[in-house]
Amino acid sequence: MGVTLPPCPVPIGAYLPVLVADGLLFTSGMLPLVDGQVAVTGAVGGERTVEEGTEAARLCAINAVAALAAHLGGVAELDRVARIVQVQGHILSAPGFEDQPQVLNGASEWLAAVFGEIGRHTRLALGAYALPKNATVELALIARVQPG
Amino acid sequence: MGVTLPPCPVPIGAYLPVLVADGLLFTSGMLPLVDGQVAVTGAVGGERTVEEGTEAARLCAINAVAALAAHLGGVAELDRVARIVQVQGHILSAPGFEDQPQVLNGASEWLAAVFGEIGRHTRLALGAYALPKNATVELALIARVQPG
Amino acid sequence: MGVTLPPCPVPIGAYLPVLVADGLLFTSGMLPLVDGQVAVTGAVGGERTVEEGTEAARLCAINAVAALAAHLGGVAELDRVARIVQVQGHILSAPGFEDQPQVLNGASEWLAAVFGEIGRHTRLALGAYALPKNATVELALIARVQPG
């Protein structure tokens, strides 16, 4: 996969990182954490370049998969993922910035590289006005998983 | 539960408050209604304090559960809720406000108090630039429910 | 239906237009495309009127149903749609604009006209600060579909 998965992100509120309901797995919104800290802050098209935003999106996806792996019982259980179904990506955007899809490709391309065909997904690429801790990206996943 | 549930919110457009599809229940976006009126308006970090935003989030959750109960056939049917799966919370935010998670805890902690362990959920806490009727929070739920 | 469905929108990133997981169909975020180009840009309440926004929402819904039809194998397969479950509509909004529900009715009323009772859905009407290609609306659908 080219990365070592970090530990499951610690929630910053009264919620769970991951839940499975009838074979559909939902993650909470993930931030671009490195070592438990938000590593990329500020709006793309302003303080942050598209390249920095793209890396933030990739970091969010890595944290989402780390949470997913932790929930399933470890990296070896990731083969229970039958499909990444949907990615919802919110990109903190400076006024006039309108290339959220390119930024979110940082997550989408990493997921496709890691999971192959089953990593290809539907998605919403949205511009955000404000995000927790001024993170550059917040991203949540829905996946289909098989029973363990 | 500490509150009397209000009646199911009346839609302000061409949609339904709640639907169930294959055991997953989806609510529409709920506003912080009291007596059918939006009770908390304006952006957190600007016109509204974090405490006022937190109360708005709690009111949204109360309206969501009211809609859910009405759909299932009454408060007594709430024991068919097997899990609150996901909360999507959009917090109207003033420039620079970045503590959406604390605001959304108003909903998350109320859901956990009402439903116990099955009330614990995944969530997205997002900052909004504009919301219907200038409401401080809009919130939607996904829940897993058992057949009646 | 009163419209000829366009071809399935071509993704503008590393994603799929539509996926089905266990009977739930998810579309990606759809833009108000006409002939493959974003036909309505700019914020409602600013550059765009409510009427123009409403038409943009309708165009997004048309593109979503076009994608759905293409995925299922053609317009004739649309009778496999058992329910439009949820619409998530993000309306590019000028400062102070708060009538996103009226704008999103452009999508909701068209879906109800096309699908009848099964076209009635839950929804989130949200104000957006920035959207891809400066589109006036981005909209995604969840539908329940029956096996082919």
The sequence of SSEs of chain A as H and E is EEEEHEHEE
Greatest contact pair? A-B, 26 and 34 residues
Report helical residue fraction of chain A. Answer: 25-40%
What class do helices, strands and sheet pairing of chain A give? alpha+beta
Number of strands of chain A: 7
Tally of separate helices of chain A: 2
What's the quaternary structure here?
A: homotrimer
Major sheet of chain A: 5 strands, mixed
Order of strands, main sheet of chain A, comes to 1-2-7-5-6
Gyration radius of chain A, to the nearest Å? 14 Å
Average of pLDDT of chain A: 96
Strand content of chain A: 25-35%
Separation of the first and last Cα atoms of chain A: 22 Å
Shape of chain A: globular
**Contiguous runs where pLDDT drops below 50 for at least 5 residues of chain A:** none
Overview in brief:
The first copy, chain A, has 148 residues and is of the alpha+beta class. Helix content of chain A is 26%, strand content 27%. Chain A has a five-stranded mixed beta sheet, covered by helices on one side.
Please provide a written account of the structure:
Three copies of one chain form a homotrimer. By secondary structure, the first copy, chain A, is of the alpha+beta class. The first copy, chain A, is built from two helices and seven strands. Chain A has helices at residues 50-72, 100-115; strands spanning 18-21, 24-27, 33-34, 37-38, 81-92, 122-128, 137-145. In chain A, strands 1-2-7-5-6 form a five-stranded mixed sheet, with helices on one face. In chain A, helix 1 packs parallel to helix 2 (100-115). The first copy, chain A, is globular, with a radius of gyration of 14 Å. Chain A starts with 17 loop residues before the first strand and ends with a strand. Chains in contact: A-B, A-C, B-C. The A-B interface holds A 12-19, 21-22, 24, 26-29, 88, 90, 128-134, 138, 140 and B 22-24, 83, 85-87, 91, 93, 95-102, 104-105, 108-109, 112, 120-129, 142, 144.
